Amino acid sequence: MYSYGQYWSEKIEAEANAFYSPVKNLNISLNAYFSTIPDVGDKTDAPYSNSPGLLNRAGGVVEGESVNTTAFYGQVDYSFLNHFKLVVGGRTERLNQFNLVLYRAMYDPRHTKFAGKFTDDSFKFVPRAALIASINKNHVFKIMYGEALKMPAIWELRNNLVVNESLKPERIRTVELNYIAQFGDIITANVSVFKNYISDVVLRSITLTGTNYTSYFANGAEIQTTGAEFNVSARPFKGFRAEVSGAYQNSSYHSLGMENVAVEFSPELLMYLKASYQITNNMSFAITGNYVDAMESQWDNQPKTPPTDMTPKGRFYGQAVAS
Length: 323
Prior knowledge:
Blueprint: E1 4-23, E2 26-45, E3 57-61, E4 67-80, E5 84-95, E6 98-104, E7 112-118, E8 124-136, E9 139-150, H1 154-159, E10 170-183, E11 187-209, E12 212-234, E13 240-253, E14 269-280, E15 283-292
Antiparallel strand pairs: 1-2, 2-3, 2-4, 3-6, 4-5, 5-8, 6-7, 8-9, 9-10, 10-11, 11-12, 12-13, 13-14, 14-15
């Protein structure tokens, strides 16, 4: 038994930036972005003979078409009252329309072809804003709000041809309070507390009807995260530097009746430590450490035991020599 998989893509990006400052306390930034993926696809073969969904599968964007992203970004920074700065910006982005195709069980009597088109080519807008208060050069407070989008992946859209469903972008909204402090030339501290709201999260579903394997994706999940993070770096004496940082986050589902299900792959606590000492000009010593808290794997709300005839069949290869 063997399995084979190949994924490939090519991407070309270009962007242009412009900066303008009409007066000393006002700065304007503009950006135009374009990218194209002229070739993207995959091939997979996992020959479980009774599951045509895994036999000689290939798909991607139809040959000759490309996936294009167009985006525009703008930001205004305005300083006032000597200690304050207001930042307001936004980004708008779109994917063009393109056709997708998926073949299953090629060269097999059970072969099937799925085809579809991504049509949601409207511009999506995300804003950002911040108020920065500099008490003095050593103490800075920031209140920030921002949004971001994650466009559906081509592989997800390709998989969804089997259920004839498209996908919406995932959206995250973040509110954050940040404090940066400098204590002499020895210690620098950075502390943040934040709240994230993630909507239209894409979840994967795997179905096994008899021996027919199918996987697809759907929007719908909502996740909220409350957390805090810090970073402290110190140089208490010449040649020595230490840095410790950590993050705590508590994430939970708020939809689909999954309120009591732990968010997968989401550790609550992360810690990092780095320290170094320059002994001589030619010799130094350093130590690093990472800690990642326990996390859960993906939740399966309809667990099933695969049929016995789906069990992979092993083969032995060798050579016998008589003497």
